[in-house]
Design goal:
The protein is about 35% helix and about 10% strand. The chain is of the alpha+beta class and about 210 residues long. Among the domains are: about 65-105; about 115-190, no CATH class. The chain has a 3-stranded antiparallel β-sheet. It has a two-stranded antiparallel sheet with strand order 1-2. Strands 6-7 form a two-stranded antiparallel sheet. Helix 2 (about 35-45) packs across helix 3 (about 45-55) and helix 5 packs across helix 6 (about 95-105). The protein starts with a strand and ends in a 19-residue tail after the last helix. The model is unreliable at about 10-15 (pLDDT under 50).
């Protein structure tokens, strides 16, 4: 090992990180992860090193899409009922990128993994409607609100609540639903409750 001395300090030469990968492995990693930087992070090496190896193995880089052009292609493939995973494989881009552009340009991608609805942990039925004004981050809306909106012929306002009269959140027939305010809804579900109840253990800041 050659040791260099400069200004009284011992300096050791820098060594290039050992990187062993074959063409097939690198090409699979690039096609799966979709970018040079993600492949570099996967192997804990520099982006430049990955690029050099791709040139060495003659691996073509993915097409660099403009957002508007990519949106047109995603809409075309989504129209063929291809889900996010299939579109990702077709365009050799990550699913994250596909859904980002789809959301930006209001493109609805079919979801083959759910039957169009799910049940929340609290028992409410949620319908998959990603184009709905009040859809959550995953594109779902509570069914009882959709039933009331269909009955009224309009979107509900933020301050409007739909109450299940028989307290069964799975019974979403319009006869069982009542449109009320947030305050009324809160008073119904907290009727008879007296505060937070007795403490099981003394509070840390309580005075004895």
């Amino acid at each position: 090992m050659v040791i260099l001395k400069k200004g009284g300090f011992t300096m050791f030469p820098r060594f290039e990180k050992k990187f062993f990968v074959n063409r097939i492995e690198l090409e699979l990693a690039y096609n799966k992860l979709g970018s040079l930087q993600k492949v570099a992070d996967r192997y804990n090496v520099s982006k430049k090193l990955i690029l050099n190896y791709m040139k060495k193995f003659n691996i073509k880089r993915n097409k660099r899409w403009k957002p508007a052009d990519l949106a047109i292609k995603i809409k075309e493939l989504a129209g063929k009922m291809m889900n996010g995973n299939k579109i990702s494989c077709e365009l050799k881009l990550t699913q994250t990128r596909i859904y980002q552009v789809a959301k930006q340009f209001d493109i609805n991608i079919c979801d083959n993994y759910h039957p169009g609805f799910i049940t929340s942990h609290s028992g409410y039925i949620l319908i998959h409607k990603p184009d709905h004004h009040y859809a959550d981050s995953k594109g779902y809306v509570r069914k009882h609100r959709l039933v009331m909106e269909e009955y009224l012929g309009r979107y509900l306002d933020d301050f409007e609540k739909v109450h299940h009269c028989n307290m069964d959140v799975t019974d979403n027939q319009i006869e069982n639903l009542e449109l009320i305010s947030i305050g009324e809804h809160t008073s119904i579900h907290h009727k008879g409750k007296m505060g937070r109840g007795p403490d099981k253990q003394p509070r840390k800041n309580s005075k004895r």
